[in-house]
Design a protein that fits this description.
The complex is a heterodimer of chains A (151) and B (749). Chain A contains 5 helices and 5 strands. Chain A has 151 residues and is α+β, with helices and mostly antiparallel strands. A 5-stranded mixed beta sheet of chain A has the order 2-1-5-3-4, with helices on both faces. The N and C termini of chain A lie far apart (46 Å). Helices cover 28% and strands 26% of the residues of chain B. Classes of the chains: A alpha+beta (151), B alpha+beta (749). The structure holds FE2/S2 (inorganic) cluster (2 copies).
């Protein structure tokens, strides 16, 4: 066990956990931020995607001890009122089926658009290839990313 | 207008005591959908009046509609309440949707499976809305002293034209709740629908895109513990003993023990399938601590003996024999080879197929296979349970809550009345969550701990402890005469452990001399329903074979299918054909027209397929391009006849998902075994379709008709596998006979 100060969604949290605990479980179990999902635990599905200083990372592979005072953003902190252009585009295209993968998809998509405001189809596919959607909403995800890019 | 007898019993009007009884109150609100539309922001009502088990109306006119069935991503949480709202005649913006708990005295068939939710709820949900509307009309008639027949409704308003009286539903709600339940109600004409048939957004949309708690895995209460299981590493093994000393002393660990899901004297029911009855359990404060302790736990396993179990299939008894031993995919391949040379059990025979085959000028024979598949819902299995000696509260993702209530009642020795089951939104189902052993496990663990627990499966636990899609083989033969006319057809198909045959399905009925045989071989690998059971293999195999037969006959593959369907319509062979040939032909013609089949560019490689299952008809055209040796699906056309479409855009989404899912599993996915152990346990080895492999475009068309809705969750999934195989052949000149097509070897990953 060790003390950590974590900066999540602009707020500082103090916690006492095993240093090897992945951020995924810190968020879900300790901070009760359950929008970040568990899908595989081995960086293969993208369900757990969060932003570390604005860059998309897989939180299941990020031990709490490695974060330091870097800024973490989760789906809950992406926007204050759920009005981030990517979230809005997701609603407009009614993307989700079961919805379980979608917070990870949105976090990957928003990081992509942060780095590249007008991605091509190929750029979207390669940036999103680490996010599995078992329900198969890929075509809608791509359309929603394009809508968000244009807004 | 259609008048129907109401069957809403008095019991559905009795407020359910558990709602008021505390305990799980948190989840009551938590499961409500709070996507507030602008008009809902006009503040929640001060008081709700419960009109019947399906709906309550606030004094300000807001309406809460209960969605009875489990939501697995098929969007019933939006589309089922749409049926209620339509007949209630309320503005959809004034509707709040809430997931109903399991309540068999009010709701029928609270189950997600077989693509039946809308089909079976079509009348009962509309009736619930129409009954409430009739009671509101009665209340207004009494208030205004006019005849009920002179009152009309529109968008949540009651109107009496002659007197100019007008009222919203809200002010009449308290009186309406007191009215007699009408014996009969009138349902709207289809032409008067305002909500059904127009696209409405997913009621959980905002919650999903903002990451609010919705799923079983997100569920938590104060002083809840986390539990995980350790199950045998291979099918054919069982637990012998555990040494918990190291694991139990790790930080945050509360208890390590072993448990049995079912006790010896329990007679298994239809959804009680469970790969491993006895498992080790690790319970602790947090998920990571439990995961680490699991690794430290020392377990000894032993070979399990052969078993014979009686399964109670809703009154019918089925004997399941489970052999002993550690099976490998190699053994399963040998079974396929052995069965290829043996006769199967004849299930259907028309005419004299053997004689026709002996006279044939040409015989085409092809063998198709597919491997076991794991469901791999994105949200792994999990369940919350809080069991005391007095009651059991459970919450989580389950497709069969009603059935599981019975299993849990027996396991805990507790009356069903004391068991409360809340259904969370599910991160996918695909059939996996029909088998709710994880609920029973959670209940037993909570009882043991005397505390609320949430049981979580890791991805590895989930993938290696499945109720898998069986492995299948199909051998098709077609006899052609010297003029290349099709004179006889033969299918022999089987699987481990069940056959995928639907003997009365097309092309049965379209060919005079037809023979269908099947076989089954036992296994100790647990299997269960997987999206479109059996069809999820046989459709692709059959549709690939028909493509090859058409080619041998020198015919266009769509024209060939239409000719067969014409014969099945005009002059069907046999009595028991399970499909309507005209509707089948309808989707084939529609996809032919929409894809401009006859006028396509020659550099596009096109495959087609069509299939009927779960009461609906689907036809596809798939356009493929080869890029650097990889097949790239440029576009898929999908034509569907599922009767009336309730929520069109959501239906398109579901069909798109079925297409992607079908291409994905046919191309890439397999679960293989070595000495009883699955060789894939996570997404590094188990391949699922990804963004770059999905079709670039999917165009969905529905047949416009006024037939009561049929299924949509499953039908778009099976046929696309055949269309993919046929397009690959056009692009490469090589036919694919074995799923996954990427390796094209029988039962190989
Ligand atoms: S849970 Fe982290 S990538 Fe799958
Ligand atoms: S919407 Fe179900 S996994 Fe993506």
């Amino acid at each position: 066990m060790a003390q950590f100060e974590l900066n999540v969604n602009g707020k500082t949290h103090e916690l006492n956990v095993d240093p090897s605990t992945p951020i995924l479980w810190v968020l879900r179990d300790h901070l009760k931020l359950v929008g970040t999902k568990y899908g595989c635990g081995i960086a293969q599905c993208g369900a757990c995607t969060v932003h570390l200083n604005g860059v998309a990372v897989r939180s299941c592979q990020l031990p709490v001890s490695s974060v330091g005072n870097n800024q973490l953003t989760t789906i809950e902190g992406l926007s204050e009122k759920g009005d981030h252009p990517v979230q809005q585009a997701w609603l407009e295209h009614d993307v989700p089926q079961c919805g379980y993968c979608q917070s990870g998809q949105i976090m990957s998509a928003s990081a992509l658009l942060e780095a590249n405001t007008n991605p091509s189809d190929e750029e979207i596919e390669s940036a999103m290839n680490g996010n599995i959607c078992r329900c198969g909403t890929y075509t809608r995800i791509k359309a929603a990313i394009k809508t968000a890019a244009n807004s | 207008m259609k008048t129907i007898k109401t069957s809403i019993g008095r019991r559905s009007f009795i407020k359910r005591s558990t709602l008021a009884g505390g305990g799980i109150m948190l989840s009551f609100n938590w499961l409500a959908s709070c996507d507030m539309s602008p008009s809902q922001v006009k503040a929640l009502p001060k008081e709700w009046f419960k009109i019947n088990g399906f709906l309550k109306i606030g004094e300000n006119g807001l309406v809460t509609v209960m969605s009875p069935n489990p939501e697995i991503g098929q969007n019933v949480k939006t589309s089922m309440p749409m049926l209620v709202a339509e007949e209630l005649d309320v503005d959809w913006n004034d509707v709040i949707v809430e997931q109903a708990p399991l309540n068999t005295s009010v709701f029928k068939r609270q189950l997600a499976g077989g693509s039946q939710s809308i089909r079976q709820g079509w009348n009962s949900l509309r009736m619930a809305g129409a009954t409430a509307r009739a009671m509101l009309v009665q209340a207004a008639a009494q208030t205004w002293g006019v005849d009920a027949s002179e009152i009309t409704t529109s968008n949540g308003q009651l109107i009496h034209r002659a007197s100019g009286s007008k009222s919203g539903f809200g002010p009449m709600a308290s009186l309406a709740a007191e009215m007699e339940v009408p014996e009969e109600v009138q349902l709207k004409d289809i032409s008067d629908f305002k909500i059904i048939g127009s696209s409405r957004k997913n009621v959980d949309g905002t919650k999903i895109v903002t990451g609010q708690p919705l799923y079983g895995l997100d569920y938590s209460t104060d002083n809840m513990l986390i539990a995980m299981l350790v199950h045998p590493p291979a099918f054919g093994m069982q637990l012998k003993s555990i040494d918990e000393s190291d694991a139990a002393n790790m930080p945050g660990i509360k208890k390590v023990f072993t448990m049995k899901t079912h006790l010896e004297d329990y007679s298994l029911g239809a959804f009680d399938n469970d790969a491993f009855n006895e498992v080790a359990v690790v319970v602790g404060d947090s998920t990571w601590e439990v995961m680490k302790a699991k690794e430290a736990l020392k377990v000894e396993w032993e070979m399990s003996p052969a078993k014979k179990e009686e399964l109670n299939m809703f009154g019918r008894t089925r004997t399941i024999e489970t052999p002993a031993g550690l099976e490998s995919s190699e053994d399963h391949r040998l079974v396929f080879e052995k069965m290829a040379n043996k006769k199967g059990k004849v299930v259907r025979k028309d005419g004299t197929p053997e004689i026709m085959f002996s006279k044939a000028a040409k015989i085409i024979e092809r063998t198709y296979t597919c491997p076991f598949l794991a469901h791999n819902t994105m949200e792994p299995m999990n369940f919350y349970a809080d069991v005391t000696s007095e009651r059991a509260n459970l919450a989580g993702p389950i497709q069969t809550p009603e059935f599981m209530e019975g299993s849990i009642s027996k396991r805990l020795g507790m009356d069903k009345e004391k068991i409360d089951i809340q259904m969370t939104r599910m991160g996918g189902g695909f059939g996996r969550r029909l088998y709710g052993h994880f609920m029973t496990e959670a209940a037993v663990i909570s009882k043991e701990m005397g505390q609320p627990v949430k049981l979580i499966y890791s991805r590895e636990d989930d993938m290696t402890q499945g109720t898998y899609r069986p492995a299948y083989q199909a051998i098709y033969r077609a006899a052609l005469d010297k003029d290349d006319k099709l004179i006889a057809f033969h299918v022999k198909t089987g699987g481990i452990p069940e056959s995928p045959l639907a003997a009365n399905r097309f092309p049965a009925g379209a060919i005079d001399h037809y023979l269908a045989e099947e076989w089954e071989e036992k296994t100790n690998i647990t299997v269960g329903a997987f999206r479109a059971p059996r069809s999820n293999f046989i459709a692709g195999a059959e549709q690939s074979f028909l493509d090859e037969v058409a080619e041998a006959m020198g015919k266009d593959p769509i024209d060939f299918r239409l000719e067969l369907l014409k014969k099945a319509e005009d002059n069907p062979v046999g009595e028991n054909n399970d499909y309507e040939a005209s509707r089948y032909a309808g989707v084939v013609k529609l996809v032919k027209e929409k894809s401009n089949w006859s006028g396509a560019d020659s550099d596009i490689h096109r495959g087609t397929a069509a299939y009927y299952c779960h009461n609906s008809y689907v036809a596809n055209v798939l356009d493929l391009e080869m890029q650097n040796g990889n097949p790239v699906v440029k576009k898929v056309y999908c034509a569907i006849d599922c009767g009336i479409v309730v929520n069109p855009d959501a239906a398109v989404n579901l069909a798109e998902g079925g297409v992607v899912d079908g291409i994905g599993h046919a191309m890439y996915s397999a679960l293989t075994f070595k000495d009883g152990a699955p060789e894939q346990s996570n997404f590094d080895k188990y391949r699922l379709i990804r963004h770059s492999e999905a079709p670039k475009e999917i165009e969905v068309h529905f047949v416009d008709n006024q037939i009561d809705p049929t299924g949509l969750g499953e039908p778009p999934f099976p046929p696309i596998m055949g269309a993919m195989a046929n397009a690959i052949y056009k692009a490469t000149g090589v036919r694919r006979y074995n799923q996954p097509f990427i390796t094209d070897k029988p039962l190989a990953g």
